[in-house]
From TrEMBL:
InterPro entries in UniProt: 4Fe4S_Fe-S-bd (IPR017896), 4Fe4S_Fe_S_CS (IPR017900), Cys_rich_dom (IPR004017), Helical_ferredxn (IPR009051)
Gene source species: Lysobacter enzymogenes
GO molecular function, one term: metal ion binding
Protein name: (Fe-S)-binding protein
Domain 4Fe-4S ferredoxin-type, residue spans: 110-140, 161-184
PANTHER family referenced in this protein's UniProt entry, alphabetically: GLYCOLATE OXIDASE IRON-SULFUR SUBUNIT (PTHR32479)
Pfam family, one: Fer4_8
Transmembrane residue ranges: none
Length: 485
């Protein structure tokens, strides 16, 4: 009888613990893409918490975020108890460590594991994460990816195509960093995890093609020129990007007496697509008495390579830009997605400055014509979470008389462009973009403004309305004695 009662009690406790550790999936299935059970992630979370308890002497506490609105935890005292056992793996499931097998054969000093160990698994990142909001799967959250990355670093579980997909889906928006109370450097962790991933699995052909073209300015220019020429003949499915603009004449402007000179970072894809924006910036800087200089020998910032795990190529591109801009003082960056990589590349030889913040600091010297228009403003993830130039942009737009600005904030917190993800995962990227497009259509705005080139290309491929960088629009509003545009 006592044995029967003990068995029933043990099973009840086991069911209770597993219910707390249950990871929500679509339609309550508890499975990830391809029928993957959530138990593998539970095992990774268990091992992470077990290691933390061994280090700190605190009771074991495994936290789950549920829907992102409630947090539950279970304190499990005996460390000798077995971790939750995964169900038999289904098709495409992650292989797991067998009962009684080794749970961590990797080095505890692994740098990737050290980055992951800063996560306290509080779950505050879940509501901020676009992929978790989209999929409602723990493995599609920062906490889940951190647990998986640590498990891979310590050989707790082997990596498979199913688990790789969760890392591939991360948009790199770093919204989780903005709300993390433990200060987890998720951006660094993501690059480190993808670098390990790339060592054992080559990138897809679209990613490799994009990287090779971005690193070779002449090849990229030739490719985009051919794309522009063939664009009218291509079917919609063969138009992953909008048509590049043709030749752009310099905008007329009345320059004040030149008092300073700054360099401009051009970039890779932006060189072909942002010619109108560079002309607009020259007009604004002319009104400020500042001369723009484009340094020879510069190239891609390397963000596209780094975020995909090719850190060696990113370092080589950074070195090229460091040489090109050495001793040039301030270097203006127009794309929020390039700014952080450029800043780190320049080091002490020059200083990367966001062009929006640069103009905003000096905007008192500019005059704006009355512009009775309604425009929609998209705030890219990199502008919000990395460059942090949103207040400067709002001040600039607020200074234009008659202008009405509608900020787009619908959906998941990211438009889905995410560097090359709009090319490698077009269906998912379109799903992230859809709520923002719907809000734009409802807003009655005639134009859409966004400070990142990737986001603008992603939007421009879906709507007929003009999609501009905010500085491009502000140059039209400039009251310098010339007609708009």
């Amino acid at each position: 009888m006592y044995q029967s009662r003990w068995t029933v009690s043990f099973l009840a406790v086991k069911v209770f613990i597993e219910s707390l550790l249950w990871v929500p999936g679509r339609a309550g299935s508890g499975r990830g893409p391809g029928g993957q059970p959530a138990a593998e992630l539970r095992l990774a979370l268990w091992n992470t918490e077990r290691k933390r308890r061994n280090d700190s002497g605190r009771p074991l506490c495994v936290q789950v975020g549920g829907t992102g609105r409630r947090t539950a935890h279970a304190s499990i005292a005996p460390m000798s108890a077995a971790p939750p056992q995964p169900a038999p793996p289904g098709p495409g499931a992650l292989p797991t460590v067998p009962p009684g097998g080794s749970v961590a054969t990797g080095s505890q000093n692994d740098p990737l594991a050290a980055l992951a160990d800063r996560c306290v698994q509080c779950g505050l990142c879940l509501p901020a994460c676009p992929t978790y909001g989209h999929d409602r799967l723990e493995a599609e959250s920062p906490r889940g990816r951190i647990a998986l990355a640590r498990a891979w670093a310590l050989d707790t579980i082997p990596a498979t195509a199913a688990s790789d997909a969760h890392l591939d889906h991360c948009l790199g928006c770093r919204s989780c960093e903005a709300v993390c109370p433990a200060g987890v450097e998720y951006g660094r962790l993501l690059v480190a995890a993808r670098s390990r991933q790339r060592e054992r699995r080559p990138a897809g052909w679209r990613q490799r093609l994009a990287e090779r073209l971005a690193a070779r300015p002449r090849a990229l220019a030739a490719g985009l020129a051919m794309y522009r020429a063939a664009y009218p003949l291509l079917p919609a499915a063969a138009r992953p990007l909008p048509r590049p603009p043709g030749r752009v004449r310099a905008l007329p402007h009345r320059a004040a007496a030149s008092t300073a000179r700054v360099s401009l970072f051009v970039g890779c894809v932006a060189e072909a697509y942002e010619a109108p924006l560079r002309a607009a910036l020259a007009r604004l800087c002319g009104g400020l008495g500042i001369e723009l200089d484009i340094a020879p020998g510069q190239g891609c910032c390397g963000a596209l390579h780094e975020h995909a795990g090719d850190t060696a190529a990113a370092a080589a591109l950074a070195a090229r830009n460091r040489v090109a801009f050495a001793g040039r003082g301030s270097v203006l960056s127009l794309a929020s997605g390039c700014h952080d990589s450029l800043r780190r590349a320049l080091g002490d030889g020059a200083h990367a400055t966001d062009a929006l913040a640069f103009v905003a600091e000096r905007a008192g010297a500019l005059r704006w014509r009355r512009t009775p228009q309604r425009v929609a403003l998209h705030l890219p993830c990199t502008q919000r979470n990395v460059v942090k130039s949103v207040p400067a942009l709002r001040r600039l737009l607020a200074a234009v008389p008659g202008l009405e600005v509608v900020e787009l904030d619908a959906g998941f917190g990211c438009c889905g462009a995410s560097g090359t993800q709009m090319l490698t995962e077009p269906a998912r990227a379109a799903e992230y973009r859809a709520p923002l497009l719907a809000q734009f259509e409802r807003s009655g705005a005639t134009r859409l403004l966004s400070a990142n080139v990737g986001c603008r290309l992603h939007f421009a491929n879906a709507i007929a309305a003009p999609v501009l960088h905010p500085l491009e629009f502000l140059a039209e509003c400039l009251d310098d004695g010339f007609a708009p545009g």
